[in-house]
Amino acid sequence: MIDILNLSYAELEALLTETLGEPKFRAVQIWQWLWQKLALSFDEMSDVSKSTRAKLQEIAEIRYPEIVEAQVSADGTEKLLLRLHDGALVETVLIPSTGRDGKIRMAQCVSSQVGCAMGCTFCSTGGMGFVRNMTAGEILGQVLVARKRRGDTRIDHPIIRNLVFMGMGEPLLNLREVTRALEMLHHPRGMDFSSRRITVSTCGIKAGLQELGEKGLSYLAVSLHAPNQALREQIMPKAARWPLDDLISTLADYPLQTRELITFEYLLLGGVNDSPAHAAELARLIRTLKAKINLIAYNPSFDASGSTPYRAPSEESILAFEKVLWDHNIVAVLRKSKGQDIKAACGQLRSDYLSKASPK
Question: 16, 96, 133, 306: least CB-packed within 10 angstroms?
């Protein structure tokens, strides 16, 4: 059976016209039912003829991920554990904020792979290892499930306003499907996301970085976490295979949209990379780039033995680090960590359900 959510608009149109002999306008109708009206079945598509729906049911299905577990943090953050069609488990996180009008908005952190091959020492997902890439339909299925759960069918002012590809996996190691997902998100008759409301985060993968920039479908965030090559090799050994100086020089030529800045994510690990000297070195490293830094305090992530390789930084060291950056005219923002009590914060996505369900 065809996963119809994994078809681009052009592919859906070809299926309808070339395979099923339907007129082109059917693609518009069905696309809107899928991506705006959140239809779970073809029977819901009331303005599509019964004969067309019957044809579709014979060859295709609307394949939503299944919600296995939902956890809500004390701060309102919600983590959903989702089962894909083959039984693979991934997590997605909804992060609330309050707008100037007092209304709640949500950012959604989506996954692009089942597990992750990068093995960063501070990241729980990296400890899982790599299982497989997700399809564009599976990536976007996370958004559909979240919108359905929230009753979020408004395209002009949706509740889920921003998407960040910062969940499980390294997006640039699944660039083809991530790109397809981004293109589908932008379709004006679908969810119609602006590139300014989508951020793709990478730990620095040479292949695909330039292509991502040239397509202009999203903003860029780079997981840096170290101000020099030696320290990066220690905490991000696989990402550090691409020398840090080469990464920075490549980012100097990265295509940016108007008023766009590259965001560097810097996880502060107590006693490892959080000294004023590290901050000064970081400022020198990125001083020539159009960039800002998101500082993130480490969220303890315990392994199977109940131990954690790092500790959180002190409030004093966080403030001192931030001050050094500002003194060097580097825009730095301490990102408030949400969802720690349900292991939904940065670096904590792992799928404890899977480890609990596995035989000892």
Answer: 306
